[in-house]
Amino acid sequence: MAKIPKMSVTNNVGGSPVAAIVTILVLAGLFLFPRFVASPYALHIMILFFLSTIMGESWNILGGYTGQYSVGHAAYFGVGAYATMMLMQFRQIPPWYGVWGGMAAVVVVALVIGSICFRLRGPYFVLASIAVAEILRLTAMNLKELTNGAEGILATELPPFTIGGTVVTDFLTKVPFYYIGLVMALLTIVVTWGVQRSKLGYCFQAIREDQDAAHSLGISLTLYKNVALIISALLTSLAGSFYAIYIGFIDPPTVLALDISVQIVLICIVGGIGTIFGPVVGAMVLVPLSEALRSNLIARAIFATGLVSEESGVGNFLKENLAHAHALIYGILVVVVILFMPDGVLGFFRKLAARKAKS
Amino acid sequence: MMTRKVFAMLCALCLTLPGLASAANVKIGFINSITGPEAPIGENLTNGVTLALEDLKKKGISVELMKEDDTGKPQISMSAMEKLAGQGVAGVVGPYTSACANAVAKLSEKYKVPIIVPAAAKEEITRQGFKWVYRLNAPADVYASVLIDAALTLGKPKTVAFIYENTDFGTSTTKTAKAYVARKGIQVVADEPYSKGSPDYRSTLTKIKAKNPDLVFMVSYVADAILLMRQAREIGLQPQAFLGGGAGFTTVQFAKEKEISNNVLSCTQWTEDVSWPGARDFGKRYKAKFGKEPTYHAACAYEAMMIMAETAAKAGGDREKTRSGLKSGQWNGIMGEVKFVDYAGFTNQNNHTMLVQQTMNGTFETVYPAKFATKKAVYPFPKWK
Amino acid sequence: MTVFLQSLISGILIGGVYALIGIGLTIIFGVMRVINFAHGDIMMVGMYLTYNLFTLAGIDPFVSILITIPLMFLFGGLLQKLFINRVLNALPQNQILLTIGLGLIMSNTMMLIYTSDYKILTTSYSSSSINVFGISVSEPLAISFIITAVITLLLYWFLMKTDTGQAIRATAQDREAAQLMGINVKRMSIIAFGLGASLAGTAGALVSPTYYIFPQIGSTFTLKAFVITVLGGMGSVIGATLGGIIIGVAESLGAVYISSGWKDVVVFVLFLLVLLFKPAGLMGKSRM
């Protein structure tokens, strides 16, 4: 018999004044961060963190709250990325309009995918979601006239963003990207919070807990599943568009591959699905971890503690290879989380806190 | 009287001897596919650079090499370039693949860091009017023209079939080859792009076999080159010649598969047999140090690093001075005469002659153009055993 | 006409190997209802095992399956005992994610050890073919097809005629009833996973003379394996066999008549059609 985890229907952020003050401090800190930290590398890490948060929160609405585990979200990410890039490079439409093109396209794509996949349940739904994402990827590869195929699309120059006659930013530093990322991440968190408190959220969670019971209560499965999907897809496509203009280069393996879909799910699983801040926690764990591995920070830390000497065989091996090991660590993390922390890091600490409160 | 003349001569000599006054120290970035599917070729570039660093040391130039692995992915190449730009390198050598080089060229121009692309084929890289991007190797249009010209001197092919990977490298080389064959009156009977990592080409090759082409023109990296030829043998594809567009077809790994690599013609930027100064010695030295023959990538990387480091040293590590040094300089080394000029829509492109080699019994023999050829080419392609 | 026959034959031969991968997956699903996303990566492990046996000990890939089968069986059993067993009662999503995680660990460990260079196995017959009425039949593929057929027949005999085999089928049909009948279902799960893993590993061994080997090759095969098992019907060995051959042929003909780039789309579209219109597959569920 499958065990259904207990998840509370309302996860309040907390109405206490302490929580409010902490929130304000954190927000202030985030907004002022670029003033005090000039290092492009630090900004880059924060931007990746925001990106992961956006991706995780968007998936959460469909997967965490409505219980529809799509492992094909790369489809929406890629559509957003490609639409924005294609409009920018081939039609000279600036990305702040192109984003809307991406969102329009993704609504159509989501409805089509929904009509195919929502007839299926459980593992079959998962498999179907993977299949449609792969079809999209292969289509992007093959329709060379439209998408440049495997060569991908390289952004030449971002047009400066002007309001009235004044140039707000010409995108030459990372700072504008930082703020865009921050605002988008906050937007997704607010949307999730709004969904959770509304009747929409109630219906989503009812569907997650027991589809048939929800149906018998009069909740239209098709309607609510599709609404959840569209919200999720729109936010994911925003993430895709942002990624495209930030990195400046996309091709099918970068934005439409299964890896992206798995990464998105991972962010939520590690953090804790079905909670507002789960994906944030997941992003906080995964982004620094992968960067620390890539830049050999972890290897250096290990040497610094003296556990392993830098010159030894093991030391050399670590130095050479730990940088490439981040996917391996991801895998280990997933296994550990699923086996020992099925409610994610957030859920694990919540349970600990609850247990402490009881004793 | 005599002593004054001698003294003057000695002074002049001292002034012209480079780097004697002080050992120059330059920071050069090196972006390469150290891991990833193109790693076997990337290894050649790394080794070429290693030999260059040795020779530079002998000339009194000490290079602080900042290596970056792009794993063959353009986005990683781009962040490597950003990183290097922020670390104060005087210039960059690399990347290897066409896709990465194209992406990085744009950044090189943006951050104003001089870059020498050693071996990437895609024409657009030096067709964008970039002031900071220099390319040592001949671009894709020469890959095509040299192979087709060689075939035309050996026989009278009338039809050609293209099979190529659908990446930047494959697509751009095939595009320019198709234009060239049209000018030479050869008809294209098949155009089959394939996705890397789908190792069953039998159906595609069967389709091509049915069209009975005189030439089969292939553009692939190593693994696919081997599989394509293996499966071509299996299904009995029998054109007048197999033409390999560089990369995978010029590697030792490919040549060693004697049953299937024999008599395949491939275009190359360099072979050991050319009469360019130091070429043969380079080949011998490479073999002695690394235990295998170099591909043209090693020679390209070597020369690119030599040029970049010498120019940067002369410019005292200043990027703008290095750039103008590259623009105005002239070199004559293992890659022959090198001068970065603007011609036929290219900017800062070295007008390099390519060669055609043929795999014979596990090694490469230069067969075209005549002035560099060491052996007569085997044509048409003998019947598969 | 020759083109059609040629690609048909190639498709059938490749399909045989696909069938082997599919059968392994379907047994695992049939007995444990676990969707094993690491199946392709297990096959990849088998490929590297074969590669090492060939390059280090000079053992021919086809001969080495005698070693690969038991080793991969142990590997699979271990995976089941240590990891899969713990999530048999968890949400299917968690099971999937666990297997995805295991797959990531496998492929990346291989990448660390062997780097992601493409490795090619060259045997004396790697590019040989036999000419049958103007159609060239790839020798290595033909041999793998024959070996696959033999293995499938042996497997079928095992499942139908032996006690353990029947116990496995009973567990697949109704786990609780089987347990009540005194069958050690935990042991059956271990055997089933071991069997699935050894079949995947064998498929890898059979295919290694003609493909190239690299750590990420697993994911393509996992997806194909799923298409095959759904097509054939989750839990049906005959279904997986048929499914494998159908997919092999669809791919092959797709490459010739549409294009090499679109052939995988053909497979996925077929997959979606089956999921939508006949989700129980060709042979229906839970019948082995």
Short key terms for the protein model shown above:
heterotrimer; A: 359 residues; mainly alpha; 4 strands; 73% helix; 3% strand; C: 288 residues; ABC transporter involved in vitamin B12 uptake, BtuC; globular
Structure description:
- The complex is a heterotrimer of chains A (359), B (385) and C (288).
- By secondary structure, chain A is mainly alpha-helical.
- Chain A has 17 helices and 4 strands.
- Chain A has helices at residues 17-36, 40-65, 74-91, 95-117, 122-142, 144-147, 175-197, 199-209, 211-216, 221-247, 252-255, 258-271, 278-294, 297-305, 313-321, 326-340, 344-358; strands at 153-154, 161-163, 166-169, 249-250.
- In chain A, α2 (40-65) crosses α12, α3 (74-91) crosses α10 (221-247) and α13 (278-294) packs antiparallel against α16 (326-340).
- The two termini of chain A are 31 Å apart.
- The relative contact order of chain A is 0.15.
- Chain B has 385 residues and is an alpha/beta fold.
- Chain B has 2 domains: 23-137 and 276-350, Rossmann fold; 141-268 and 355-368, Response regulator (Rossmann fold, 3-Layer(aba) Sandwich).
- Chain B has helices spanning 2-16, 39-58, 74-86, 98-111, 140-154, 168-183, 202-211, 222-235, 252-256, 258-261, 279-290, 296-314, 319-328, and strands at residues 24-32, 61-69, 91-93, 115-117, 133-135, 159-165, 187-194, 215-219, 241-244, 265-268, 331-333, 336-338, 340-343, 346-350, 355-360, 363-368.
- A 7-stranded mixed sheet of chain B has the order 7-6-8-9-10-15-16, with helices on both faces. Chain B has a 5-stranded parallel sheet with strand order 2-1-3-4-5.
- In chain B, β11 (331-333) and β12 form a beta hairpin.
- In chain B, α7 (202-211) crosses α8 (222-235).
- Chain C has one domain: ABC transporter involved in vitamin B12 uptake, BtuC (Orthogonal Bundle).
- Chain C is 73% helix and 4% strand.
- In chain C, the strands form 2 sheets. Chain C has a two-stranded antiparallel ribbon with strand order 1-4. In chain C, strands 2-3 form a two-stranded antiparallel sheet.
- In chain C, a hairpin with a 2-residue loop joins β2 (129-132) and β3 (135-138).
- In chain C, α1 packs across α9 (218-232) and α5 (139-161) packs across α6.
- Chains in contact: A-B, A-C, B-C.
- Chains A and B meet through loops of A and α3, α4 and α6 of B.
